[in-house]
């Protein structure tokens, strides 16, 4: 949930057009002014407009500061494509706890059943993370809403919630295997009241 | 006290006679079988001699041994000892001169021992012919010289009780007549002369006051209180004696002692009598037939000490010293001087004969009381006003104290200190011990200093018998928990003169003042047993319950039984009858509306023992608390304890058909009469010391086969499931599972007890007193009967230690370090306000008091805890945080301006 903005290469490639302006620092003489920035883009969403004539090249060079480009980049995003991406992203967020489960299982197993600082810290962490995640359930999906996600994401939320519950279950299992859960009679014996006596007896040896 | 020597606890430690010399004294002990010499200057045992006995059947000493010791008057360095059939002589230098065995004959009993300058004379009674056989042995080598016989009219027992010997005279009292039998001292003179002195009534006692080769003084006491003193003078060159009466007017309760001094012409005779708190002395010089120079002294005693029991008068370097032992066990030394008598030493030797101990909490201080009061209200408004008023009064008293401090300074500091000593401390660690001694003196002892706060002497005191010990019931009538009422303690004892009369004395344990409303000396019934009621009646006082000989139960003071005992919980009473060797259980039914103060008991069960004799009954401590209902095992299941509060331990002794002695231990349920545990140990000797607590019992005995002390520990469990988790009844069909283990003890055992704590959470320790003077604290887990033979991980999880038969005792666990205490007869443990701490009081010849921490100090700070460092570092942190806060804000502002 921490990485709400995925940064892997794949998604960068998928959203090349999300820029409002750009600065071209590579200015060469006699270069063709209208530059399409991404030649390798699969979908050419850039529309280049020439506002100047080719013969104005030199003037243009002098007038515009470094990094200034007369070109305009349009900000037109195709709606259906965006929705598809958002759906993917929301599923990413929803399934993220389940994806993390194997790692936590390994972590819990590594910690062992003995009591040490490490194992206790890991148990505390196993409890704290899902609980925090459940409480910040809405904020986990908040970014999606900000980005204008319309439609229902309750299924995602339930998935996210259930995923965190599996984490809690793992934490409980860990506690159980460490013997921290009061599941035996022996854990409650200190709280047992004293038995009340149904008879009293007095006496001793007869004084002769 | 310069030195002290503790003799053996067995028969060899019993002193028969002490013969005093100038530098050292010879002590004959063990029925004339041991002689040893102690030097006065340093208490060193200079020599010790044991009688050479050839008869090894000393086990059959069921017949009371008889022993006579005399110092030869003609040769003061020689002591003759007659012990049954052994006659031996030792010199004061520690040399055994000779030792002979007089031929044993069943009808012949050796009674008298006399000595002359040449012979040692043994008078033995031949019960067949009623003749006294007088045998002469040579003083030098013990060779039998000759013997003669004379008619004798007393039997053996009478002869021992009523006769005494003096030089060559045997004095025997026969009702109103004193016979003086002169034994001839040489071979040529053989006629025995008998003369008589008539007394006005039956002679009770003959005492020899002074004895020398030429002169003797005896005292004859008649049972009508008349006392006469006769002086004997030896006739020249014969073995006969002249006697004449000395006319001294004596009171019936006076004691006489005679001292000689080289500087004095004759003997000085001292007459002493006790009168309330006053001792009167009359000193006179014996002059032929009359007394001259009579002088009277009197000394005021600090307290009532009863009658004189022993008196010795001596003149040491012209100082007249009187040593007395009083009825209350006090040792007094009084110096008689020209300007009157002066008490120069007073020791309460009664403290070495403690038989009952109880502890009382000290009273709350005034501030603690106010706090109790402050939170005592119920309504909101009353609580508020109480708080305000008490806090105002606290303020006022604080100012008053300040004022007092300024005006008076330290003048009444001592008084305040003494008051402070009587006030309960924060953790209720200091208490007051009430001890009852076998002579009838009761002491109140402060535990923090060991100082005696008060003492009371009850003159006609006689304790009850309890198997082979004595016992005085001592009860908490009202505990110190009720701050508005003073606590009360009661003792119950019998009258010394008429054993059917029972006295009850109730007193305030802080001051020893008698509470006269609850004190009586006449109960209209003959008491069989006394115990304390389970419920408080009036003003938080409990009442005493008496069972009389008609098996009727009475209350004292008289209140309805329905108020003294619970009507919802049935009461069972068990009594052990020694003559029948049987335990009888009675059921006591009380109707709630019943106003009867006495009722009959209904017998419901009976357990009798055959071929074995009950030698002890042991009950658990009334303060025994069980905190947890079970033990957590290694697999985290629970093994429930069988904690039956109605169990008592019974020890029996006997000899089986193979003539092997055995000891049996039973755990008897006193409600149903069922036996829950029985152990038999063969070739085992008592005393058996028992600790019964929670669900376990630990007892020790002496193993005759392996010649070592052993302990057996047993625990009772209900099993993996509890029959009823909320109530316990002895009628529940629970068959307890018993686990037992035996252990070898490194030392013998004089007394054994378990530590007590307030809630019973702290683990238990066994406190053991050993004959060599140590008090050892052994954790109970070393006695745990569940100690496994091979340790599994599950056992290790549970914290069990592997079984080893020997109990190793660390010298660190000796709680009295090098302050050895001897002949401990009992240990008393009490809980304190701190759960970790238990109080231990061991009593016997010596007294020892300490606090023990069975589970270490878990609820206190260590002694070396540095309050200064913690305090100053806290202050430093607070100051530092403020400074840092200021700096941080400055820093922030600067950063913002940048």
UniProtKB/TrEMBL annotation, chain A:
<feature type="transmembrane region" description="Helical">
    <location>
        <begin position="106"/>
        <end position="128"/>
    </location>
</feature>
<comment type="subunit">
    <text>Component of the ER membrane protein complex (EMC).</text>
</comment>
<protein>
    <recommendedName>
        <fullName>ER membrane protein complex subunit 4</fullName>
    </recommendedName>
</protein>
<dbReference type="Pfam" id="PF06417">
    <property type="entry name" value="EMC4"/>
</dbReference>
<keyword id="KW-0256">Endoplasmic reticulum</keyword>
<keyword id="KW-0472">Membrane</keyword>
<dbReference type="GO" id="GO:0005789">
    <property type="term" value="C:endoplasmic reticulum membrane"/>
</dbReference>
<keyword id="KW-0812">Transmembrane</keyword>
<comment type="similarity">
    <text>Belongs to the EMC4 family.</text>
</comment>
<dbReference type="InterPro" id="IPR009445">
    <property type="entry name" value="TMEM85/Emc4"/>
</dbReference>
<keyword id="KW-1133">Transmembrane helix</keyword>
Automatic annotation (TrEMBL), chain B:
<dbReference type="InterPro" id="IPR058545">
    <property type="entry name" value="Beta-prop_EMC1_1st"/>
</dbReference>
<keyword id="KW-0256">Endoplasmic reticulum</keyword>
<dbReference type="Pfam" id="PF25293">
    <property type="entry name" value="Beta-prop_EMC1_N"/>
</dbReference>
<protein>
    <recommendedName>
        <fullName>ER membrane protein complex subunit 1</fullName>
    </recommendedName>
</protein>
<keyword id="KW-0812">Transmembrane</keyword>
<dbReference type="InterPro" id="IPR011678">
    <property type="entry name" value="EMC1_C"/>
</dbReference>
<keyword id="KW-0472">Membrane</keyword>
<feature type="domain" description="EMC1 first beta-propeller">
    <location>
        <begin position="3"/>
        <end position="334"/>
    </location>
</feature>
<dbReference type="Pfam" id="PF07774">
    <property type="entry name" value="EMC1_C"/>
</dbReference>
<keyword id="KW-0732">Signal</keyword>
<dbReference type="GO" id="GO:0072546">
    <property type="term" value="C:EMC complex"/>
</dbReference>
<keyword id="KW-0325">Glycoprotein</keyword>
<feature type="domain" description="ER membrane protein complex subunit 1 C-terminal">
    <location>
        <begin position="693"/>
        <end position="897"/>
    </location>
</feature>
<dbReference type="InterPro" id="IPR026895">
    <property type="entry name" value="EMC1"/>
</dbReference>
<dbReference type="GO" id="GO:0034975">
    <property type="term" value="P:protein folding in endoplasmic reticulum"/>
</dbReference>
<keyword id="KW-1133">Transmembrane helix</keyword>
<feature type="transmembrane region" description="Helical">
    <location>
        <begin position="867"/>
        <end position="888"/>
    </location>
</feature>
<comment type="similarity">
    <text>Belongs to the EMC1 family.</text>
</comment>
